[in-house]
Amino acid sequence: MTVTSPRKSITSVDSSALETLVGYNTRRASLVITEVFVERMAVHDLRMVEFSILSLVGHNPGITSRQLSSALSILPPNLVSLVNGIDKRGLVERQPHPVDGRAVGLHLTSAGETLLAEAEHTAAQLEMESTASLSAAERKTLIRLLQKIYRA
Amino acid sequence: MTVTSPRKSITSVDSSALETLVGYNTRRASLVITEVFVERMAVHDLRMVEFSILSLVGHNPGITSRQLSSALSILPPNLVSLVNGIDKRGLVERQPHPVDGRAVGLHLTSAGETLLAEAEHTAAQLEMESTASLSAAERKTLIRLLQKIYRA
DNA sequence: TATTGTTATACTCTATAACTATA
DNA sequence: TATAGTTATAGAGTATAACAATA
């Protein structure tokens, strides 16, 4: 005879299998931090990627689009409109590259310098906010372990 | 007089400012693991989200679409085509919910059980592969710290 | 009234091919 | 021949509004 197993409903979802995976946990944590980042950085009208570009240009005057592309794992075609956007907002300037006529060096304007300083302050705040459950030592350990993965 | 600062080119990119941020490091690590995941899981024709759904259905027989939506932070409309896809592949079955006439309980078929077992084996392997630079203790610590963030 | 599942739709993000100017 | 920057475009991921059926 055939026994049809009863179809029960579940109350709480068991995610323990997924939670054994580093990839799953990394993605969940990334989603939480990203959400806080987007909310708090909206006052500067900056998305995550725009903040990253501004930061790299600020700390690497003369950086090229190709170098940004490589450093942020963004494909060159997708960088065009991003750089155009912060250029039109008067945050960065394009200067001819000193040695390579094909390339263009990016530099922050004084408005860009000001906004980056404010945005970095906001970023530091929201970081502490979204990782408030971690001690300073744990935060340091977490960053070290994550870097071991993506620098490997 | 106006002094124009010389426009130099940079050789290596300094990302140290971004690297002080937990959010940046989490995202970079997530990108690396995701890349390995996509490559290795292609043999099962499973994307990350499809593996996650299969795992939750497998370990929570009778789970509803709404519960999946909540557990994976996927909006209900975006879950429809995903569940339809693995349904058409014969990996899951929809059964009427025992107590709620609006809901539908999801269950793995035997083909789904088989594929999930294989995919979980692949996932465990690629996890070790993409986090090979971590010791077992470090991997455990990393997961614990990440969970403190997204469970906060 | 509220919720489950769904359709339709729009917007963002990511990826590929191909072009131009220069190396 | 190769590389930097760009255009056009396609696909994947994520978002909101609104509907039918059921609670």
Summarize the structure.
Chains A, B: Pfam families: MarR_2. Two copies of one chain form a homodimer. With 152 residues, the first copy, chain A, is mainly α.
Series of H and E elements of chain A: HHHEHHEEHH
Reported for the largest beta sheet of chain A, the result is: 3 strands, antiparallel
Strands of the biggest beta sheet of chain A: in what spatial order? Answer: 1-3-2
Rg of chain A over CA atoms, rounded to whole Å, is 21 Å
- The helical percent of chain A reads 55-70%
Might you state the CATH topology name of chain A? Arc Repressor Mutant, subunit A
Query: Can you name the CATH architecture of chain A?
Result: Orthogonal Bundle
The total count of helices of chain A amounts to: 7
Q: In the residues of chain A, how many domains can be counted? A: 1
Oligomer: homodimer
